[in-house]
Specification:
Length: 73
């Protein structure tokens, strides 16, 4: 099952806080698709996910300064 989270309206550090809360509600093996802005969120969220032991499956450019990050719990 893939969960979805759009954090394009959030600023750091709330970007990762929202991601971490969503991941906590998920079961092991599930994936979270995150839409975020380039810059600080793109630099911090994937890195923080990996530091917490989650697998960053992919990071894709969606255009217009937005990116899609797929994280597996």
């Amino acid at each position: 099952m893939i969960h979805f989270l759009d954090i394009t309206r959030e600023t750091c550090p709330m970007t990762f806080v929202k991601v971490k809360l969503q991941l906590a509600r998920m079961d092991a093996g599930q994936e979270l698709e995150i839409i975020l802005n380039e810059g600080e969120p793109l630099e911090n969220v994937p890195h923080s996910c990996e530091e917490q032991g989650y697998q960053v499956v992919s990071v894709d450019d969606c255009g217009d300064g937005k990116h899609r990050v797929l994280v597996k719990k």
